[in-house]
Amino acid sequence: MRRETEIWWKQSEEDLISAEKNFEIERYYVTVFLCQQCIEKGLKALFFKIKNTNPGQTHSLLFLAKETKVPEKFNKFLRRLTPQFINTRYPDAAYDSPSEIYDKELTDEYLKETKELMIWLKLQINK
User: Other CB atoms closer than 10 Å to residue 76's CB: what's the count?
Assistant: First the structure.
């Protein structure tokens, strides 16, 4: 496996573990942030593998998904997840602070969909 693919994928998996741990301690905004980071890094790992080049400094999960031929069934989730790297970090990005926006139910949805896409990404990375 190409070095860039390996290190981006490894960090993607670490971010998922951290997302799960933060969910357990009810740090929901951190969980959602790490879900976004996990998927972004996983998609970049796949981009490195497929394209043999750096995707640049994009945060667009839809762009990365299109370039790596992620099934369209994930697009709705990716549209919702993409802006979360901002909403979870900046208190003035949304009406309320990040710690007040996310609850257990909403966060659980993000985490479940992240895990589903990670399964697909892992299959592609390991081909």
Answer: 10
- Using a cut of 0.85, tell me whether the model's pTM lies above it: yes
Both structure tokens of 93: 């990005």
Average pLDDT of adjacent 10-residue blocks, the chain of 127 residues: 94 98 98 98 98 93 98 98 91 82 97 98 97
What SS3 state is found at 59?
Answer: coil
Right CATH for 3-125 from 1.10.3720.10, 1.20.120.330, 3.40.190.10, 3.40.190.170: 1.20.120.330
Q: Around 7, how many Cα atoms within 13 Å sit in the side-chain half-sphere?
A: 3
DSSP one-letter string for 60-124: -HHHHHHHTT--GGGHHHHHHHTTHHHHTT-TTSSSS-HHHH--HHHHHHHHHHHHHHHHHHHHH
Contact 101, 117 (CB under 8 A): no
- In the structure encoding, which two tokens stand for residue 123, read together? 């299959």
For residue 92, what are the CA distances in angstroms to 26, 29, 32, 36? 22, 14, 17, 19
